[in-house]
Specification:
- With 281 residues, the chain is α+β, with helices and mostly antiparallel strands.
- It is 46% helix and 20% strand.
- It contains eight helices and ten strands.
- The relative contact order is 0.12.
Length: 281
């Protein structure tokens, strides 16, 4: 695998083929970036000549465009696209794991992926036979659903205990579990599959919103948990001040500055987890 960053986002496949790609490995991570990223993959044909599926992820990538040689028109490229801003029904492979049906080929073939995303730039890709893809789907669906069920069981437990004693910490924990349950559901690809065709961006918007809310849910929960541990007044004021960033990040999301909001939210989450224990020392 090799990758190339196009800061302008304007290059086409003809220019990109001549671009200076840098060797890399999969999974590939590039952090938050407004650039368009191109990935060059060399895929060998299957041992038995069966067709291949190119599975890509994670599910929160906004748009992934595959450029594959067109067997009907030598020298031309066939384009296919998917992402959490596109309709699920338009995917070539109806799976919660984004993927493409590769055209048949008998020798090693070069493919290009053009990736744009407002969230962190991470790419995972594998070319497998349909049978292997189905096996991977079963394992992924099972593990994702098991984790989601665990989250919902914890949520039900918290609600049951809250009904009995109305503990303020449990109230916060219920909200935290709700936010993270939505996030897990979206990250697993289930929300994209259920999004109405008239609103394909639902999964993307829900994932972005849950990412921002999760940061502040953790912040509020940390404050509630640290208070009985002797959280000093300056520490409480520090955490309270950080809460005022919530409306700012929500406004950034509404205004279309999604990447800036997600980057600030990720940095804030890191700071909260790192600094919260220090505040009680």
């Amino acid at each position: 695998m090799a990758w190339f960053e196009d800061p302008s986002g304007s290059l086409g496949i003809e220019e990109v083929q001549r671009a200076p790609f840098v060797a890399g490995i999969i999974p590939c991570s590039g952090g938050f970036s407004p650039s368009t990223h191109w990935f060059r993959l060399r895929v060998a044909p299957s041992a038995d000549g069966s067709p291949l599926h190119l599975r890509v992820g994670p599910n929160f990538l906004d748009e992934v465009v595959l450029y594959a040689p067109d067997p009907a028109r030598p020298g031309h490229w066939r384009q296919s696209r998917l992402g959490d801003r596109h309709r699920f029904a338009e995917r070539e492979l109806l799976s919660i794991v984004p993927g493409f049906q590769l055209p048949p080929f008998t020798t090693e073939t070069t493919l290009y992926l053009r990736v744009r995303s407002s969230s962190a730039m991470i790419l995972v890709a594998e070319a497998v036979t349909p049978r292997v893809a189905a096996e991977h789907d079963i394992l992924l669906h099972g593990s994702s659903l098991a984790f989601l069920v665990l989250m919902l069981v914890m949520l039900a437990w918290a609600i049951g205990n809250w009904v009995e004693d109305r503990d303020p910490v449990l109230t916060i924990f219920v909200g935290v579990q709700l936010v993270f349950s939505v996030q897990v559901f979206a990250l697993g690809g289930f929300l994209a599959a259920l999004a109405p065709s008239a609103w394909p961006q639902l999964a993307d918007q829900a994932m972005n919103l849950s990412a921002v809310l999760a940061t502040f849910a953790v912040l509020i929960l940390n404050r509630a948990l640290l208070k009985p541990c002797g959280l000093p007044a300056v520490g409480a004021r520090t955490l309270d001040a950080l809460l005022w960033l919530l409306p700012v990040l929500l406004l950034l999301l509404v205004a279309g500055y999604t990447q800036q909001a997600l980057k600030a939210s990720a940095l804030l989450m890191f700071a909260v987890v790192l600094v919260s224990p220090v505040l009680v020392l």
